[in-house]
Design a protein that fits this description.
Blueprint: H1 3-8, H2 31-46, H3 49-57, E1 68-72, H4 77-88, E2 92-96, H5 105-113, E3 127-128, H6 135-146, E4 156-159, H7 163-177, H8 189-205, H9 209-216, E5 219-222, H10 225-236, E6 244-246, H11 251-254, H12 257-274, E7 282-286, H13 290-300, E8 305-309, H14 313-321, E9 325-326, H15 329-332, E10 338-341, H16 351-354, E11 361-365, H17 375-383, E12 387-393, E13 396-401, E14 414-418, H18 424-427, H19 434-454, E15 462-463, H20 467-478, H21 490-496
Parallel strand pairs: 1-2, 1-4, 2-3, 4-5, 5-6, 6-15, 7-8, 7-10, 8-9, 10-11, 11-14
Antiparallel strand pairs: 12-13, 13-14
Helix pairs in contact: 2-4, 2-5, 3-4, 3-19, 4-5, 4-19, 6-8, 7-9, 12-13, 19-20
The protein binds nicotinamide-adenine-dinucleotide (NAD) and ligand 3DD.
């Protein structure tokens, strides 16, 4: 089949040509969707002082001139503000969401239309994202954003969870080995989709496509804990192809977004999904790291009775010091009403736990990927007819166990699973509020500017932005609260051994 024909061959069940050459693909580019999105974007910017300050600081200077950024990060209103900041600083940007449920369709519309465009004449950025993508559509979208209309690729990636970074690396690895594993060898549906994509790309573009893309990628900035973990793994096994900046471990990202963002958005999601009263209910938070801490605060804020599970004795001790019971899920699974996984790990809640849960127990995950709750095993029980899956509304499902006897009238019990085990705050709500994301995304813009300017000086490593930039991000956000800093005297600065203007802490300081 010739290249043109291969290009027009549709990808899996998407009905979409693999190299579709579309300017964008979103759910709703209607004038009302654009209006709504632009209006919420205006409101968001009032709450995003860090991004606004960067736009002012670099107005007209175009520090990102020449940057071609492919972004894979939840397509929300806040992300639209990030996108338009990158564009105002001179970058060319193409975008996808990093989760099939997290896109806010009016945000995508706002980004495509742009500040100077409209639904009829969009002048924004190419976005390939809509809420409720299938997995094959998700990976189709990722490929679209990686390929510019002239066939070239990005020179920077902005990633959240590492999926864009992953597909470029896998593509190169299989081109190097000369062999792409058969789709049938995949141990998950999603890996099967990725392998299908790699096979079809190879058939259409030969076996140097991914090397070609990778050759122009100068670096990646990674948003989240799990994506950072994947990057350090690549450094460990010597497979990282380009420099990376770990945005997650900027203090003004993880100690704010991961904690206070989840504090805000977890109960928002549970309430929108179920309308259940949280007060007085027994809630189990699996993991007491940054997200776990925010999640506990979120549930305690609603007067839930919260316990946590942990593997790390330090985090467990922190929980104890807050009067939070540290338990094992096996010991409490029959008595709790709400379960939230926050570990960034896998197989935290299995079907063996679900079988034992109370009738209508609520099960959700706020970690990045959907492997914290064993949804694959649960779906196998549905396929086998042992469990009925009932959609209550999008991203809210009742799973009715037909053979248990502790449900109503001694018959089977049900559990309510939110966002199909994917991150619940973006699947069932709108994620973190703008102010919190402003700090995260100010770090992202700084990271992209640093890579654009100095990527080659980094080598194939993972780096965290310097502390003075972290403190700059914090400074940019204090005004919103009317906070007034005290100034060190020279004598005081000498006494504690720091510069009058900071940095005020060593890199070892833990906040
Ligand atoms: P973290 O490393 O700070 O915390 C994870 C905690 O889970 C650790 O304390 C670890 O000891 C614990 N843990 C690991 N395996 C466990 C197990 N089997 N049982 C109990 N505890 C276990 O990570 P984090 O920054 O809190 O991020 C957690 C996850 O949330 C990551 O996947 C991250 O990418 C994601 N995240 C999501 C959002 C969101 O908006 N949904 C925001 C930020 C981060
Ligand atoms: N994340 C949470 N809320 C978000 C929002 N409103 N827009 C974009 C992304 C959002 C996820 C982030 O917390 C990301 O930084 C992560 O997962 O760590």
């Amino acid at each position: 089949m010739n290249e043109t024909a291969m290009d027009s061959k549709t990808f899996m069940d998407t009905g979409l040509p693999l190299f579709a050459g579309l300017p964008h693909k979103i759910a709703d580019l209607s004038p009302e969707s654009v209006r709504f999105g632009r209006k919420e974007l205006d409101l968001a910017l009032v709450e995003m002082p860090g991004l606004v300050a960067l736009r002012e600081e670099y107005a007209g200077l175009k520090p990102l001139q020449g940057a071609k950024i492919m972004g894979s990060l939840h397509m929300t209103i806040q992300t639209a503000a990030l996108i338009e900041t990158l564009v105002q600083l001179g970058a060319e940007v193409r975008w996808v969401s990093c989760n099939i449920f997290s896109t806010q369709d009016h945000a995508a519309a706002a980004a495509v239309a742009g500040p100077d465009g409209s639904a009829q004449t969009p002048r924004g950025v190419p976005v390939f994202a809509w809420k409720g993508e299938t997995l094959s559509e998700y990976w189709w979208c990722t490929l679209q954003a990686l390929v510019w209309p002239d066939g070239s690729g990005p020179n920077l990636i902005l990633d959240d969870g590492g999926d864009a970074t992953l597909v470029v690396h896998m593509g190169c690895e299989y081109e190097q080995s000369g062999e792409i594993p058969a789709v049938e060898t995949a141990d998950s549906q999603e890996l099967g989709v990725i392998l299908s994509l790699l096979h079809q790309v190879r058939a259409a573009r030969g076996d140097r496509f991914w090397h070609g893309l990778a050759s122009t990628i100068r670096g990646v900035s990674e948003e989240t804990t799990t994506g950072v973990h994947r990057l350090y793994e690549r450094v460990e096994n010597g497979t990282l192809l380009f420099p990376a900046i770990n945005v997650n471990d900027s203090v003004t990202k993880s100690k704010f977004d991961n904690v206070y963002g989840c504090r805000h958005s977890l109960v928002d999601a549970i309430m929108r999904a179920t309308d259940v009263l949280i007060a007085g209910k027994r809630a189990l938070v699996c993991g007491f790291g940054d997200v776990g801490k925010g999640s506990v605060q979120s549930l305690r804020g609603q007067s839930a009775r919260v316990a946590v599970t942990e593997v790390d004795p330090i985090c467990a001790l922190q929980a104890c010091m807050l009067g939070i019971d540290v338990v094992t899920i096996d010991d409490v699974v029959e008595d709790f009403d709400i379960f939230v996984t926050t570990t960034g790990n896998k197989s935290i809640i299995g079907v063996r736990h679900m079988r034992r849960m109370k009738h209508n127990a609520i099960v959700c995950n706020i970690g990045h990927f959907d492997n914290e709750i064993d949804m694959g095993d649960l779906e196998k029980l549905v396929a086998a007819g042992e469990v009925d899956k009932i959609q209550i509304k999008p991203q809210v499902h009742e799973y009715h166990f037909k053979t248990t006897t502790h449900g109503p009238e001694g018959r089977g019990h049900s559990i309510l699973v939110l966002a199909e085990g994917r991150l619940v705050n973006l699947g069932c709500a709108t994620g973190h509020p703008s102010f919190v994301m402003s700090a995260s995304f100010t770090n992202q813009v700084m990271a992209q500017m640093e890579l654009h300017k100095n990527a080659e000086s980094y080598g194939k490593t993972v780096t965290v932005l310097p502390k003075h930039l972290d403190e700059k991000v914090a400074r940019l956000h204090l005004g919103k609260f009317g906070a007034k800093l005290t100034t060190l005297t020279e004598e005081q600065a000498r006494y504690i051994g720091v510069p009058v203007d900071g940095p005020y802490k060593s890199d070892l300081y833990r906040y």
